[in-house]
Amino acid sequence: MLRWAEAARGRVHAIAESLGNLLVETFHYLALFAIGAVTAWAGLVAFLGMIDKGSISVDDILLLFIYLELGAMVGIYFKTNHMPVRFLIYVAITALTRLLISDVSHHHRPDMGVVYISGAILLLAVAILVVRFASSRFPAVASGGRPRRPSDSEAEVIE
User: What is the rounded distance in angstroms from the CA atom of residue 134 to the CA atom of residue 159?
Assistant: First the structure.
């Protein structure tokens, strides 16, 4: 009698796990497609706004790079199920660079804000070095529990 109950529990658990995995993966892919579509739409709207304005500034080009980096991040996450942390830092550096260029070009006054933004960019650049060093020094753990050296493309994703 107990064997029957234990076998039934195992089947129910397997069905629930499979159904849960299906729902989670479905949400995962739908959310990735939505984020990718919204990023592409925002980039297209920004680009059309630049064309409509009749001129393109460095701010505008950096904004397009931000959209490009976000799109690449979504694509890598879609293919590998790993969040490329370095891309988030690249987006932050590009956003701060855009802010710095915009502030200097519009206000034409040197102040401590320029130093703070430059320091933040430097700090983020150091963070990228730390992430790259950590991923090469401490490679990803394989499913068997043993550390393995990731390939070049995997190392880029892990970072």
Answer: 9
Report residue 4 CA to chain centroid gap: 48
| 103 half-sphere exposure, CB direction, 13 A CA radius | 16
8-58: pLDDT as tens digits:
888 999 999 999 999 999 998 999 999 999 999 999 999 999 999 998 888
Q: Rounded distance, CA 35 to CA 57, Å? A: 26
Total domains present in the chain? 1
Q: Are 130 and 55 in contact (CB under 8 A)?
A: no
pLDDT at residue 147 in the model: 47
Taking the model in full, what pTM does it have?
0.68
Residues 6+ apart with CB under 8 A from 59: 98, 101, 102, 105
Structure tokens, 35: 């984020």
Residue 66 lies in domain = 2-158
Residue 1: predicted pLDDT: 63
Which region among 28-32, 94-98, 108-112 has the lowest average model confidence (pLDDT)?
A: 108-112
3-state class of 141 per DSSP?
strand
**133 and 90 Cβ atoms separated by less than 8 Å:** no
Q: How many CA atoms lie within 13 A of 117 on its CB side?
A: 18
